[in-house]
Write a structure and sequence with these properties.
Radius of gyration: 25 Å
Shape: elongated
Structural class: alpha/beta
Number of strands: 9
Order of helices and strands: HHHEEHEHEEHEEHEEH
Distance between the termini: 12 Å
Bound molecules: adenosine-5'-diphosphate
Largest sheet: 4 strands, mixed
């Protein structure tokens, strides 16, 4: 983060004698409190200063998040998600394989007629079914899918960092992106609005590395 000359001065003061109130900092710099407020807000939001109510500002050193971490926290899943490759729970395992090829995906999101999330089927689920001599044409994917409530999901307003952490932690390739609602039976359900995958994270990583966001201002 590039600091202005005044922000550097504020940091120097607070580094020397934490905690300092806004008034104390302002009087040392011969400025009024209102002039200083935007700088203090920026430094606090960046994590360089910590503001404790009724005590004052503390210097946080380099403890604040790095610029790249800050960016990842600001980016939202909804801005990077892909269209959901979703199939109905009644289709056969054979048709699921065809759908994986036609949609060029390795995992399928399984939904019912109301687009309510029911489960996930991955390549390995299908390989396992093939080894077991199952009737691939007659057997519906609902038999082999990982089903709700065991599905790990993401929301559109969730940070990309949090979603990527879920992919790593649970060793999965795809998170269905969902909107929660209460169905007619009064139960919480999840409508599928997209998918967020390891490929989305990799593409984002490449774009960040190349400083090549098409409309950067939207996110930063
Ligand atoms: P694969 O191992 O086939 O390359 P994954 O790693 O995504 O694909 O899937 C591993 C297992 O986790 C499979 O059994 C799959 O059904 C299940 N799975 C996939 N995505 C999810 C998810 N979002 N939540 C819970 N389970 C999932």
């Amino acid at each position: 983060m590039q600091l202005s000359e005044r922000q550097e001065k504020i940091l120097e003061l607070v580094k020397k004698s934490s905690p300092m109130t806004g008034e104390q900092i302002a009087s040392q710099l011969n400025l009024n409190r209102a002039t200083l407020r935007p700088d203090l807000t920026i430094l606090t939001m960046a994590g360089v200063l910590e503001a404790r109510p009724r005590v004052g500002y503390f210097y946080n050193g380099n403890a604040g998040p790095s610029p790249i971490a800050q960016r990842f926290r600001q980016l939202r899943v909804g801005d990077f998600k892909s269209i959901a490759a979703a199939v109905k729970e009644s289709i056969s395992i054979y048709d699921a394989v065809v759908s994986m090829f036609t949609n060029n995906v390795g995992s399928l999101i399984v939904i019912n007629d109301e687009r309510e999330l029911k489960g996930m089927v991955s390549r390995k689920d299908i390989l396992k079914a093939s080894l077991g001599n199952m009737d691939l044409h007659g057997m519906p994917i609902s038999v082999i899918m990982t089903r709700m409530p065991n599905i790990i999901m993401a929301a559109s307003d969730e940070s990309v960092l949090e979603a990527a952490r879920k992919l790593v932690q649970h060793q999965i390739d795809t998170l269905p992106v969902v909107e929660s609602y209460i169905n007619e039976g009064g139960r919480e359900s999840f409508e599928v609005v997209g998918r967020f995958t390891k490929t989305n994270v990799t593409s984002l990583f490449v774009e960040l590395g190349q400083d090549k966001f098409p409309n950067t201002a939207k996110w930063f």
